[in-house]
Design a protein that fits this description.
heterodimer; A: 114 residues; mainly beta; 6-stranded mixed sheet; 4-stranded antiparallel sheet; 0% helix; 52% strand; B: 115 residues; 7-stranded mixed sheet; globular
C-alpha cells in the first residue's frame, strides 16, 4: 500500500522568505502526487499535481513542486512567502486502481511571521 | 470550475441522535465519492468510498452500521452518523472524483459536535 510522509509538522518562515515543504512517498510504481492547502475549518484546495511528464510542476499562488523519483520525493516550494500563505499543507498520493483513493500525509502547519 | 457542495457546514446534535451530511457535485457527475474524517490538527483519514448505485466500500476499522453512506445519484452522496456519541465529533470532508483539474474536488467540510 502507498504511504506519504511529511517530516515537518510545523514550519515558521518570515514573509518574503523562501519556503520548502517536504514530502516523501512510498509506492512501487509512479504515483499521482498532489499538494493541497487547507485553511482552518475549510476543505482542501488543490495547489498542484503531478501525473507524468515534466517533473517540475507549476501550481497556483506561485507554488511549484519537483518530482524526484530517485528520492521518492515531491517537495513543495515557493520563492517568496506571503502572510496569506499561512495554512495547513497536505501532500497526497493516488494510485490507479484500488478505487483511486488518495492517501494523505500528516500535514505541515505553516506559520508566516510578518 | 468544478464545485462540490457539502451541507451542513456545522451541526450540533444530542448524543444518541442521527445526523445526515450531504455532498453534491454541482456541475459534473461524480461516479465515485470519498468520505474523510479529520481530527483537530491531524490528517484526513479515508472512511469510505462510495460508488453511484452500489454499496460503499469502508476502510478497515470504520463501522459501516454507524456511518451509513448512500450514493443514490451521480451528483449526491450522503453520510449519516447514526446514534451519534461525543467521540464522533469531528470534521468530515467529502471528495468527488472528477470535475476539477486535479481529478478530485473537495467539499468545504462539516464540523460535527455531539453533546
Amino acid at each position: 500500500a502507498q504511504s506519504v510522509t511529511q517530516p515537518d509538522i510545523h514550519i515558521t518562515v518570515s514573509e518574503g522568505a523562501s519556503l520548502e515543504l517536504r514530502c516523501n512517498y512510498s509506492y512501487g510504481a509512479t504515483p499521482y502526487l498532489f499538494w493541497y492547502v487547507q485553511s482552518p475549518g475549510q476543505g482542501l484546495q488543490l495547489l498542484l499535481k503531478y501525473f507524468s511528464g515534466d517533473t517540475l510542476v507549476q501550481g497556483i499562488k506561485g507554488f511549484e513542486a519537483e518530482f524526484k523519483r530517485s528520492q521518492s520525493s515531491f517537495n513543495l516550494r515557493k520563492p517568496s512567502v506571503h502572510w496569506s500563505d499561512a495554512a495547513e499543507y497536505f501532500c497526497a498520493v493516488g494510485v490507479t486502481g484500488g478505487g483511486n483513493k488518495l492517501t494523505f500525509g500528516t500535514g505541515t502547519q505553516l506559520k508566516v511571521e510578518l | 470550475g468544478a464545485v462540490v457542495s457539502q451541507h451542513p457546514s456545522r451541526v450540533i446534535c444530542k448524543s444518541g441522535t442521527s445526523v445526515k451530511i450531504e455532498c453534491r457535485s454541482l456541475d459534473f457527475q461524480a461516479t465515485t465519492m470519498f468520505w474523510y474524517r479529520q481530527f483537530p490538527k491531524q490528517s484526513l483519514m479515508l472512511m469510505a468510498t462510495s460508488n453511484e448505485g452500489s454499496k460503499a466500500t469502508y476502510e478497515q476499522g470504520v463501522e459501516k452500521d454507524k456511518f451509513l453512506i448512500n450514493h443514490a445519484s451521480l451528483t449526491l452522496s450522503t453520510l449519516t452518523v447514526t446514534s451519534a456519541h461525543p467521540e464522533d465529533s469531528s470534521f468530515y470532508i467529502c471528495s468527488a472524483r472528477g470535475g476539477g483539474p486535479g481529478g478530485y474536488t473537495f467539499g468545504s467540510g462539516t464540523r460535527l459536535t455531539v453533546v
